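From the shared-data thread, chain only:
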Amino acid sequence: MKRIGVTGHRSIPHEAVTHVKDALHALLCGHSGSLEALSSLAAGADQLFAGIALECGAELTAVIPSGDYELGFDDEGELARYQWLRSRATQEVRMAFAHSTDEAYYAAGTYIADNCDRLVAVWDGRPARGRGGTGDIVSYAIGKGRPVTVIWRDGVQRD
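Structure, as tokens:
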């Protein structure tokens, strides 16, 4: 079974969403053989990836950064999507952090990078805005020799 993990931005500009969805769909549904998708189920890229992976028949592993992770969702729709995706996961891995902190996010991201065959990064190429951000996890994965596929629409920048 091939294992594909995700790291990505919580906020994806409107101009990039269709491109990101199409690229994730092509990558995940174009895969032959069994597939396991690893995601922290955060709003934005993680939820897009997990939803598409399930549509494509992949098994989902939810990597939960902390005990109070659900409190970090600002939007009720994002929280509901998180709960729905989590309920469909075939496996759940929980990091040993009581509270959501940058260290908890970093631990979840590095767990995903350590336990996948390929990391997909929905990433604008800019440095992380906090420890455990997309740029940090991409750097970590590359440092570990993990193949990384970057998905982003050229010319689009995040706020």
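The radius of gyration is 14 Å.
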